[in-house]
DUF4190 domain-containing protein (Pseudonocardia bannensis), 97 residues
Amino acid sequence: MSTENTVADRLLEDARKKTAKQESPALGKAALIVGIIAVLASPISLAGWILGVAALGLGGAAVRRPAAAKHAKIAMVLGFAALVVATFFFTLVIATR
């Protein structure tokens, strides 16, 4: 009985391979690049907040794709770090006035 499903299993595996080939890690890479730029720009509070939120958004969209999940998770961490650093510098500027 278990040998009857071999054709169906093979067809399912072929469909999964075709779907995996069609997925591109481009969104994850874009999120990672925006996350890196966000961390670098985070001492400028407004730029850090905007780019940090963009990195979180792109990372959240890309994390659903298996091909881009690793880059997306890193981008989300970098986006969050950029938000924290930008908030720190904003409060620092406000406190020194």
